Amino acid sequence: MRSGGRCENPLCAGQPEDVKENGDPILEVDHVLDRARWGRDHPIQMIALCPNCHAIKTWGRTGERLREVLFFEARVRHSAWCSEA
Ligand SMILES: [Zn+2]
């Protein structure tokens, strides 16, 4: 809901315009930090990413840098979303 159907990576180079069979956006909700290490199941720690950004975060050489960006972005978006509700 918070993402408004768009990838939450502020540096996203382009989310697929296609949607899923049910009309939902093609987004993957992921933990900003590796849950096994220190992530927790809370919206402040979660981010909706398009498949491209998800792959960069998981496999890319710039994944660690992106993680830092997303960590900050998730906090900003979470507080903004809470103050709207
Ligand atoms: Zn993206």
Present the secondary structure layout.
Elements: E1 28-31, E2 46-49, H1 51-59, H2 63-84
Antiparallel strand pairs: 1-2
Helix pairs in contact: 1-2
Bound molecules: zinc ion.
The site of zinc ion has 8 residues, from α1.
Describe the model.
It is built from two helices and two strands. It is α+β, with helices and mostly antiparallel strands and 85 residues long. The protein has a domain of 57 residues. It has a two-stranded antiparallel ribbon with strand order 1-2. The structure holds zinc ion. The site of zinc ion has 8 residues, from helix 1.
Specify the overall morphology: globular
Low-confidence stretches: none
Ligands, ions, cofactors: zinc ion
Helix content: 25-40%
Strand-residue fraction? 5-15%
Sheet with most strands: strand arrangement:
1-2
List the helices and strands in order.
EEHH
Helix tally?
2
Termini, distance in Å? 12 Å
CA radius of gyration is: 13 Å
Tell how many strands the DSSP assignment holds: 2
Q: What kind of assembly state do the chains in view correspond to?
A: single chain
Give the structural class.
alpha+beta
Mean pLDDT equals: 89
Main sheet specs: 2 strands, antiparallel
